[in-house]
Every structure is written in structure tokens, then in C-alpha cells.
Amino acid sequence: MKHIQNSETMNVAFLVYDQVEVLDLNGPLDVFVKANVIQPDSYYCFTVGKTKEAVYTEANTMTVIPTYDLQTCPKPDMIVIPGANPEQIMKYIQDEDFRETVLKWIKNHYDRGTVVFTVCTGSMLLSGTGILDGHDITTHSMLLDVLEQRNPEANVIRNVRYLDQGQLITTAGITAGIDAALYLIGKRLGQETVDTIVTLFEYQNTLCLPTENDR
Predict the structure, then answer these.
(1) Interhelix angle 191-201/22-38, nearest 10 degrees
(2) What Cα–Cα distance (Å) separates residue 112 from each residue in 78, 108, 121, 139, 185?
(3) What are the residue boundaries of the DJ-1/PfpI domain, all occurrences included (predicted)?
(4) What is the C-alpha to C-alpha distance for residues 117 and 14, in angstroms, rounded to an integer?
(5) Measured between alpha carbons, how far is 115 from 32 in angstroms, rounded to an integer?
(6) Confidence bin at 8 (pLDDT 50/70/90)
(7) pLDDT tens digits, residue range 24-35?
(8) Bridge partners, 125 (sequence order)
(9) Residue-wise DSSP of 72-87
(10) What residue numbers bound the domain in which 100 lies?
């Protein structure tokens, strides 16, 4: 698949794999897609899988056919790694084939300067790769303790929505991926673009409106 883009376009690869959490994937993806509508050619967003075979999303509710496989995708400037349920994540990090293909592909690009953006339990997938070492990191609250146990060289932070460590961005659970994506859009394209996306989303972000009992 060919895609014509200008030199300022950022290639953003969204990793898909069996049982991926749909909102982890589609929340940030839609933020980047909307940013591209507002400021065209800012991003080239695509999905990438181990192969181009369709993968099931969480609970087998739908299938996703990756745009590219690991061998054919364009060089990513950013890789977005959505999560899955904790049991599935633990299976993946113990799967030698997954480590030697998908995780090695991520690590190779990270070592060459690609930004890695994990959503929810996606950070847990990187345990043992060395990518998390020396960084402040976070994940879904259900896996914070396990993340800390498996990554003793990293500093696990609690009670945050997302953490920006330059080349590594990690988030808390599920909807925090939307917040981090908006943040990253703001860094690159400015707050006006973020405000427009929030309006289009009708998204309240972390704002909590008072109830009648609170007034």
C-alpha cells in the first residue's frame, strides 16, 4: 500500500494483536484521525500486526485486518501499543514467539529513536524488553504492583493519567489513552487543535461536574 505524504507527516503505527482492547486502540486512534482532519497530513495513521491476518478484539466481538505486517509497514515515528485484559497480557509476555517477533520489532524501532506510546496494560507488554528501564511508568491500576515486580529498573507511578518521558509515554487504564493522545496532539499542533477535538468528541476529559447534592 502506497501513501503519499509530505516531509512533515508523522507515521503513527497502531499495534493490533489477538484480544486487543477496543477502546485502548480506537480512543487514541480517533484522536489522531481527528487531528488530521483539522490539520491535514500531520499524521499517517495505520494498524500493524504480526501478520496481515485478521485478529480478534477483546471477547471476540469483532475482527481487525491490519493495514501492514511487521515486515511491510512504513518506518514508524511513533508506535502506539494498546492493552488487553491482564490474563491475556501475561500470556503474551511469556510467549517466546511474540517476544521474538512483535516485541523485538518494537525494541528495534525504539533503539533507533521511534517514540513508544503505551495505553493501559500495553506498558506491561514491554516488561523484559529494557524499554521501560530507567523511566517513570504507569499502567492500569489492576496491574501496577505486577508492573513494578516485573520492572525493578523502572519507577512505577500511581494515581496519574499519563506520563511523558520523551521517547516513552505510558498511561493509566483505557480512557487515559485518549487524554495522553490529546496531550501529544497539543505538544505538536497546539492547544487550539486539542480544543477543537475535545469539542468534536463532546469529551469532558477529567472534568467532574457537580451533582445536585454537591451544590
Answers:
(1) 120
(2) 11, 7, 24, 24, 22
(3) 11-184
(4) 9
(5) 15
(6) confident
(7) 999 999 999 999
(8) none
(9) TSPPPSEEEE----HH
(10) 10-214
Eight-class DSSP state of 167: S
Measured CA to CA in angstroms, residue 45 lies from 40, 141, 154, 186 at distances of 12, 28, 29, 17
DSSP notation for 130-170: SSSTTSEE---GGGHHHHHHH-TTSEE--S-SEEE-SSEEE
Assess if residue 2 is contained within a domain.
no
pLDDT in tens, 143-172: 999 999 999 999 999 999 999 999 999 999
Which of the two residues, 99 and 208, has the higher pLDDT score? 99
β-bridge mates for residue 162, sequence order: 171
- The number of folded domains in the chain is 1
- The torsion angles phi and psi of 68, rounded to 5 degrees, stand at -135, 165
What letter would DSSP give residue 102? I
Is residue 5 included in any domain, yes or no?
A: no
The pair phi, psi for residue 25, each rounded to 5°, is -80, -55
- The amino acid occupying position 93 is I
DSSP annotation of 67: S
d(CA 147, CA 124) in angstroms, rounded, equals 6
Does 180 map to a domain? yes
Residue 13 CA to residue 31 CA, distance in Å, equals: 14
**Phi and psi, residue 66, nearest 5°:** -60, 145
Evaluated on CA atoms 151, 152, 155, 157, the torsion sign reads positive
114: domain CATH number?
A: 3.40.50.880
Distance CA 25, CA 41 (A): 21
Flag whether pLDDT at 209 surpasses 80: no
